Amino acid sequence: MSQAIIQAIEQGQLKTNLPQLSVGDTVDIHVRIIEGAKERIQVFNGVIIKRQRSGICETITVRRIVANEGVERTFPLHSPRIAKIEVKHRGHTRRAKLYYLRERVGKKRRLRDRRRGLGHVLKDDPADTAKSEVVEAKSTATAKDKTDESQNEKPES
Amino acid sequence: MLATLLGRKIGMTRVYDETGRNIPVTVIQASPNHVSQVKTSDRDGYNAIQLAFEQVKPRRSTIPMIGHDARAGLTPRRWHREVRLGAEEVSEYELGQELAVDIFEQVKFVDVIATSKGKGYAGGVKRWGFKGQPASHGVERKHRSAGSVGGRSSNAGTGRPKKGGKKAGQMGSVRHTVRSLELVRHDQEENLLIVKGPVPGPNQGFVIIREAIRLSKRKARVLAEAS
Predict the structure, then answer these.
(1) Which residue segment(s) compose the domain that B81 sits in?
(2) Do B131 and B105 belong to one domain?
(3) A71: distance to nearest CA of chain B, Å?
(4) Domain count, chain B
(5) At B109, which helix (H) or strand (E)?
(6) Which CATH code for domain A1-141?
(7) Predicted ipTM?
(8) Judgement on whether residues B98 and B123 belong to the same structural domain of the protein
(9) Could you say which of B18, B20, B190 has the minimum Cβ distance to residue A5?
(10) pLDDT 10s digit of each residue in chain A, 157 long?
């Protein structure tokens, strides 16, 4: 019962409109900055090198290069200070944490395009539609097949 | 009267306030308390009210306590605690009166009183933060011992150690008061009080929550600015 109370408190604060994010993605993070009475938005662009899932405290760490110096910032995803997150590019990774990017210099920092396993994301993600129309077409096709099957099954059950 | 309620510690989580600050909080549930007894100086020698909290099955209570609660028009209650009051204040309360979270509406800081988690019989390192002895340089089998308890002179020449020194012993399971915690939110529908920071005792534990009786300078200033 008590867990339900805690969950209800957290549920009210979780953002539901976050895009599908994964490690290796290049993102624009729009951060609200309050200076006195004024509020402005600053954009931090970089690669997600880690994601720590923890419900309301979930964070992502984003790495970028500023004036030849690596800069990493950690953002709490559900904070009201994060105005918006835009996915610019999806990178292919074989690690959950991309600490190895810290040692990489120059072109080696780049990540390959991610193509696999994105069928469920791509439908409402304009950033990637151009790249992998084939994947999308496939996924919709499979989805259709499934619905057909389920309709067929209904009368039996 | 200082706003006081009995409640249960539900657990900890985090909330964001309107400026985006991420605050660690403890959630306390204080479903309505009732006045189960009014004590006056004429009859009892001092002025107080007794609060009762949370219904309990009659077989979990005792015959005398069931009768005591029944006199206030209440079903059996699990916990009863007294709150001392001034002579005039007592007359404001009557038997069976309900007190809910809304009495904390104007309150910014609270004290929370509860029994801390028991740690058992603990040594000096855990209980008092002693450093213990070095890992090597000839130390044998005494790495977590407390060390010296003083010599002849430091023990006031009595020839025996002073009383009340920091030693190994029972740790925790003691009534503790955490003072002037910020009251972050209160939810009247769910009877919740959300305070900043940790509170003694386990989840589901019994706590007493009251308006802070004394504030640090900084917190007093915050309060003055708000009002």
Answers:
(1) 4-118+174-226
(2) no
(3) 23
(4) 2
(5) strand B109-115
(6) 2.30.30.790
(7) 0.74
(8) no
(9) B190
(10) 688 899 998 988 899 888 989 999 999 999 999 888 888 999 999 999 999 988 899 999 999 999 989 999 999 999 999 999 999 989 989 999 999 999 988 888 888 887 766 666 665 555 554 444 444 444 444 444 444 444 444 443 3
